[in-house]
Amino acid sequence: MDPPTPSEVLPKDTIHVAGAQPIDAIQAIGTKNINATQAAATPSSVENPSLSPNNKVELSEKVASSHRKKSRDWDHFEKIEDKQGQSRIVCNYCKKEYLVESSNLLSHLVNCPKYPYKELPKRQKTLSFEPTQGGEEGLNLVATSFTLEAGRKALTEMIIIDGLPFKFVEKYGFRRFCNVLQPEFYNIPSHLTVARDVVNIYFAEREKLREALRGRRVCLTTDTWTSIQNINYLCLTCHFIDDDWKLNKRILNFCLVDDQKEETIGRKIETCLLEWNIDSIFTLTVDNANSDSTTVQFLKRVTKDWKGTVLGHEFLHMRCCAHIVNLVVGDALKELDVSVARVRDAVRYVKSSPNRFQAFKNYAVKLNIESMNLLCLDVPTRWDSTYQMLENAEKFKKAFERLEDEDSNYRVYFMDKDECRNSGTLCGGPPNEEDWKNCKSLVKFLKLFYDATKRFSGSMYVTSNAFFDDIFVIQTNFDQLIRSHDYIFSSMARNMKRKFERYWGNRNKINLLLYVTVALDPRKKLTYLQFCFSEIYNEVVVSGMLDEVKDALTRLYEHHASTDSPSVQVESEDETSLIQVHENYDDPCKLIASRYRRFLEERQSIGCKNEVDKFLAENCEGTDDEKFDILSWWKNNSSRYRILSQVARDVLAVPFSTVVYESAFSTGGRILDPFCSSLSPKMIQALICTQNWLQASVPISLRKAMDDVEQFEEYDLAYLDSESGSSSSTITDLYA
């Protein structure tokens, strides 16, 4: 609905002033009574923002002296008395004054510069700043104009992205905020309308994604969730590299499943793929650590004759690396559970009250301990939180020792069975020197797994080519720890390596794509694999493994070559030639240099049977830059390796983890929050899928989120201190 015009706000028949009887302007303009219908069509007072200009409510009240109805329209003005005692009328917006008898009130709102309901001329736009696209920092200055439709769509997208309850739009505070921010946005939809808009946006975005996936090969990951009503859901996600060589991750379905049996999940995946018209899948990453997954075997059987099947689904099964790392790390924590429990209880004591925490901080200051990290308690189902707890606590070791010397309650705390909660382990006192030594060594070891999990659980960048590095580093560290003179760590490393090799030690069970991704890295190729293999295996094994990797890469190349369209090759070469001529036509020297480089490349590739031999024969890229973009390299060299670049597009999209960064460290299952659990399964799917689609370009920063939590925790403790009067300046210092 359009906002009211001044002619609707001020009827030409009678003028009323808020808080007074109608102004006597009848003789000048004639008189008529304002009926209830006229009053209902006028806007509400700005002083009462809960009422919008078009609310059809009764805006009249009786005036006792005349028994006539007074319209709330006249809240646009206020009646006052000047120093001489004369009555005057003041505009509530621009504060301009008029005599009570003035007839200018009729046209004042038309020209009032601060009247909030004034309409902008049609097609007139205002300059505003908008964030840059693609998640990049910065702002763009653009010309925009407000429309109710755009505002309503943006409101619905906010509800989806931020995971807000639908009734949020009916909250008084939110409506008041919208009224102040944009008075034209007065027709805020109800929660039922928002629910319908969510479904409409879901259908629209789904069609966009369906078009983007048309004829494209994808990699899949699966994950299972449970609602608080114990209802099972399957999250099916696809990963692919688009025509612009950008990695994409999209949730296809978040759907109800009868149970979490592997065959049930396999049938549901087949149904979802048919609904999306996807007939080409390259890999399926599952969170089951078993090498023989029933889900994978079922999909191999039912999709083997699909159009886009690659080498009979030889490389289909990919096990979740985050899940395997969690299993391995769990054994390490069990080896040192007593030391970890003592440190945990020490941290719990310090954080149990503001006074204890303040005393601990004072000890740290006296001991000149410089650390920006706060003490934090771990979460039982997240081993990374245990790692961070130990890492931070170890830096405050001397402060804990000082606390033990001067605080008798600290020593008693560990002996009190009711207060010492360490998961059933008898702590027997505060952490001793041996405990701190164990925790320090454990932190160094866990850091390998922590950093590795962060890298291969990334959602916005290619992780497949870097995964091998982490596995190689972990495997070599096992051997070093086993040779250690420390019996505890030698035993721990031996047990962890045994479980590690159960999943990745058998060369016959490991997916060769783990090595093919390294071979396709222009900085490494087979030479790097040979170097790493030589550190672990003997010469015969190394030679056999290199042959297997090259054979797998060659067979992938031949498969793509057999299904490639010749017309694409001509188009690609012509397009590349035109681009090169266009870029160098104004500089003949650059053109000659470019042609000479191509001549050298062709000369080096003489005798090469195909693009695989040509790629492997060329020298590796001499760069150790951590910011090296492997996708950009293949994009720029796709004209030279037209078929092999298609192989790289598939292989580099393979995810080695079923979960993203924020869930990769969790050893517990994923559980829906109460809001989502209260919705119907179809609405849950619409919300979760659309949320992913709308913010697909926004990277995930768990470290920043955890820093925020620590900072908020510090504010909270400072607030408690200021309330108790123990440190009045603490909270001010924190916000400074």
From TrEMBL:
GO molecular function: DNA binding; protein dimerization activity; zinc ion binding
Compositional bias segments (type: Polar residues): 39-57
Predominant location category: nucleus
Subcellular location: Nucleus
UniProt KW Cell membrane keyword: no
Key words of the record: DNA-binding, Metal-binding, Nucleus, Transcription, Transcription regulation, Zinc, Zinc-finger
Highest taxon of source: Eukaryota
Name of the protein this chain belongs to: BED-type domain-containing protein
Lineage: Eukaryota, Viridiplantae, Streptophyta, Embryophyta, Tracheophyta
